[in-house]
Structures are given as C-alpha cells and as structure tokens.
Specification:
The chain is mostly helical and about 300 residues long. It has a single domain, classed as Up-down Bundle (Rhopdopsin 7-helix transmembrane proteins). About 75% of the residues lie in helices and about 5% in strands. It contains 10 helices and 3 strands; from the N terminus they run βααβαααβααααα. It has helices at about 20-50, 60-85, 95-125, 130-135, 140-165, 180-185, 195-225, 230-260, 270-290, 290-305; strands spanning about 10-15, 90-95, 175. The chain has a 3-stranded mixed beta sheet. Helix 1 runs antiparallel to helix 2 (about 60-85), helix 3 (about 95-125) runs antiparallel to helix 5 (about 140-165) and helix 7 runs antiparallel to helix 8 (about 230-260). The longest helix is centred in the middle third of the chain and has 34 residues, at about 95-125. This is Olfactory receptor. GO terms for molecular function: G protein-coupled receptor activity; olfactory receptor activity. It is found in: Cell membrane.
Length: about 300
C-alpha cells in the first residue's frame, strides 16, 4: 500500500449543498422555517409522553425516545449548514469533522435500532398479546435502550477508527455540506479499497439487514391481523402503517447513500439533505398525527397550561 507525502490534516473545506446563490437562499428559508416549526413539535412529543402517566406503555416509551433521538440528530448538520450559507469559505476542523461524523452515525443507527425495537413491541402486542405484559416489562424496555446506545456507540466508533489511520496529502475539500465517511475517505492518499469495503459493510449491510428484517416483521404482523376484530384490527393496522412509512423515510435515503461503492451521483446531496435534516424531524410528527392517544394528551396538556 503506497503512501505519498502524507501530512497532518488540520481542517476540511466543505463545498456546500450548491454554488447557486438563489438555490442557497431558497434552501436556507425552507430549512429554517421547517426547523423552527417542526423541531419544537418533537420536544412537545417528548414532554407530552413524559408528563402523562396514561402514556406509560412501551409503545409511547419508544416513541418518546424516537422524538428525542430525531431532535438530537437534527442538531448535528442543520445549524452549521444554515450558518455556512453565509460563509464564503466553509471550514471545519479535522476534530470537528470526526466529531460530527461520530454523532451522525451514533444517533442515526440508534434511530434504526429503535425502529427495530418498536417493531418487536408491535409483534409481541399483536401476535403474542397474552404474553405482552410479562415480556415488555419496564426493565426490558430500559435494557433494550441500553443495548441501543451500546450498539450505536460501537458502530460510530468503528466509523471514526477506520478514518483515523488514513494519511492525507492532497486536497482537503469535501464535496458535501457535512462530514461523512465516503467523502473523507476519498481524500486519502493511499489505497482505500479495504477501508471502503469495511465502511460499506459496517453501514450498508447493517442498514439493509435491519430494513429487510423490519419489512418481514411487519408482513408477519399484518398477516396475523387478518383474524382480528374490525375495531382492534383497524387500530393495529393504522399503527403498523405509520411505522412502515417511517421505516421507508429512514431507510430509503440511508440505503441509497451507504449500500453502494463510493461513487458520486447527482442526487447525492439532495438525498443527504432529506436524510439528515428533513426526515428525522418529520418521523415523530407523522406518528403523532396518526395516534389519537398522543394527540388527546397534547390537547389536555395545552388546555391545562392555557387555563392557568
């Protein structure tokens, strides 16, 4: 493996989403409005679930954590991207870049693991209802959450570790509006084939397996619902349909970005924008709009504070 005049990389230059000033302004306004309206909604979901004892079921426990993870995820890319719209030279330090990369994957894969746990919860509730209370105990839910954070940490740590040893000797320009493994690895002045395979395996294979597993589990659940009564069936189908929508919103862009070799496509930045900024904020809102219990609890919370 040949290395040519490697130097210590201290900073990267982000080329941004686009060079067009008109498109930058449009994206800035849309993202800012979206950010200021939808982000508080995620925190409202968390507050509602925490403050209402009637929403103590595992389903709402996981939903509250999904809203928290999604809100946290939205802070990784969006604020800096909005500020960079006004910067001629978008510079990010090497450490700052790796830190952004770590938390991007830590929270991103955490959301996907959480969707798997939510599918498991729905499977037990619908297919094994008599055993639900004994299986989905509070300590089991907290154990799954701990497993989520440990798995997410291991995944993100591997992403950073694969980049730390790479030598850089040429351009420090990242053709993106945030730091991610594919763009950083492209700048290394050495043969990165093995690293690319490991990154695609660590990202793409894990994402694809989770996605296919989720589709299979919801197919089993929907098949099992055939024998249920109309009222219970409609409610369960509505919940599962919402979960499936969120699964496609989360996994669709991730599969497009991480399950292929490090090639550049014209749609990469647009897909990345939806994956890192738009969809994470939308996921809990989509679920809440289709959940009568959470909406009723929000109204009670709102009326309680307004009436004071």
């Amino acid at each position: 493996m040949e290395i040519r005049n490697s130097t210590v990389m201290t900073e990267f230059i982000l080329l941004g989403l686009t060079q067009s000033q008109d498109i930058q302004l449009l994206v800035f306004v849309l993202v800012l409005v979206f950010y200021l309206i939808i982000l508080p909604g995620n925190f409202l979901i968390v507050l509602t679930i925490v403050s209402d004892p009637g929403l103590s079921a595992p389903l709402y426990f996981f939903l509250g954590n999904l809203a928290f993870l999604d809100a946290s995820y939205s802070f990784i890319v969006a604020p800096r991207m909005l500020m960079d719209f006004f910067s001629k030279k978008k510079i990010i330090s090497y450490r700052g870049c790796l830190t952004q990369l770590f938390f991007l994957h830590f929270l991103g894969i955490g959301e996907m693991f959480l969707l798997v746990f939510m599918a498991f919860d729905r499977y037990i509730a619908i297919c094994r209802p008599l055993h639900y209370s004994t299986i989905m105990k509070p300590r089991v839910c907290y154990g799954l959450l701990m497993l989520l954070f440990l798995g997410s940490f291991a995944h993100a740590f591997v992403q950073v570790a694969l980049i730390l040893h790479l030598p850089f000797c040429g351009s420090n320009q990242l053709d993106n509006f945030f730091c991610d493994a594919p763009q950083i690895i492209k700048l290394a002045c050495t043969d990165t084939f093995v690293v690319e395979v490991l990154v695609v395996s660590n990202n793409g294979l894990l994402i694809l397996l989770c996605f296919l597993g989720l589709l299979a589990s919801y197919a089993v659940i929907l098949f099992h619902l055939k024998g249920h009564s109309s009222e219970g069936k409609n409610k369960a189908v509505s919940t599962c349909t919402t979960h499936i929508i969120i699964v496609f919103l989360m996994f669709g862009p991730a599969i497009f970005i991480y399950t292929r070799p490090f090639r550049t496509f014209s749609a990469d930045k647009v897909v990345a924008l939806f994956h890192t900024v738009i969809f994470p904020l939308l996921n809990p809102v989509i679920y809440t709009l289709r959940n009568q219990e959470v909406k009723a609890s929000m109204r009670r919370l709102f009326n309680r504070h307004i009436s004071r």
